[in-house]
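> call design_seq(struct)
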């Protein structure tokens, strides 16, 4: 393992020190429509006859190390303050390893679902088509001293807090993973049981998975020492890494060629596509269901329809 590769991995980890659901406000809701299909494909019994996505995008960034005050989130101008870090950021110092996750997803325009059925329940069935662009990165088992040194920056301040200079330091099982891919799915969902207050619906999606780029790095034993503020000595490192040929080798490369990656991906030039599948089931308890009309039979005004008071779901997502 070349020293330059270890330093590159360390730099990437430092930049990542930052798990995940998208579109959280819609998850588990009957009003999620096609947006919920990659959370649970049991989308039948929707209040919509037709749901078309114009554009949807979401991102999540989580870690168990640094928190940001809600005041700063409500006032973006605070991020420009010179003392922002000391005023609005807080560390979690507990001697444990740190993890971080970043994920982003864009649901493609004109992803859609439509419902159909019989007179008793016109929304008993649902068929949908959806496609997504996805990107995820995560770092695991980052030692606390490594994270704190990156947080404060190499120099006197970081050394005064962590005492990293001239210390024999070690990180074990350090890992970094990143992947970008597209998926295209066709979904079918159906209400399989609807009696009294109880309703069960199931769904499944068949997907085409289209790789864009990927990489991983893993260091089992990373023994190192900072002999000076800007001089790193690596005493031992057992490492493995791999990356796709088209994976960006630097930040500049990533910025300049990101459009090319996605363009090549859409042309299936970045890898051989594979197939995947999702399955899901949802139970709904509807104790206040109307006695004279079933939910979504269009016999009642939309605002008067009775929906579940309790719902529980299970899904296996590829």
């Amino acid at each position: 393992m070349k020293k330059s590769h270890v330093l590159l991995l360390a730099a990437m980890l430092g930049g990542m020190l930052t798990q995940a659901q998208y579109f959280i406000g819609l998850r588990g809701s009957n009003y999620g429509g096609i947006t919920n299909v990659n959370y649970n494909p049991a989308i039948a019994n929707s209040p919509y006859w037709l749901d078309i996505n114009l554009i949807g995008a979401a991102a999540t960034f989580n870690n168990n190390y640094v928190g940001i005050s809600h005041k700063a989130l409500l006032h973006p101008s605070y991020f420009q303050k010179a003392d922002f870090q000391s005023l609005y950021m807080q560390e979690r110092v507990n001697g444990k390893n740190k993890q971080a996750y970043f994920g982003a997803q864009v649901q493609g325009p004109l992803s859609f679902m439509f419902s159909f059925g019989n007179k008793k329940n016109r929304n008993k069935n649902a068929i949908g088509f959806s496609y997504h662009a996805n990107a995820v990165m995560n770092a695991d088992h980052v030692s606390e001293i490594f994270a704190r040194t990156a947080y404060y920056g190499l120099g006197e301040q970081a050394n005064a807090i962590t005492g990293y200079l001239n210390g024999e330091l070690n990180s074990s099982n350090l890992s970094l993973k990143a992947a970008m891919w597209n998926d295209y799915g066709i979904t079918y969902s159906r209400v399989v049981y609807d009696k009294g207050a109880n309703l069960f619906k199931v769904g499944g999606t068949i997907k085409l998975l289209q790789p864009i780029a990927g990489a991983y790095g893993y260091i089992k034993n990373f023994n190192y020492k900072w002999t000076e503020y800007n001089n790193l000595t690596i005493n031992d490192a057992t490492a493995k890494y791999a990356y796709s040929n088209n994976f960006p080798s630097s930040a500049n490369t990533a910025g300049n060629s990101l459009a090319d990656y996605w363009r090549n991906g859409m042309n299936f030039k970045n890898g051989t596509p594979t197939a995947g599948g999702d399955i899901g089931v949802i139970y709904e308890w509807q104790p206040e269901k109307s006695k004279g009309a079933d939910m979504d039979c269009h016999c009642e005004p939309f605002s008067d329809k009775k929906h579940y008071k309790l719902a529980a779901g299970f899904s296996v997502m590829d």
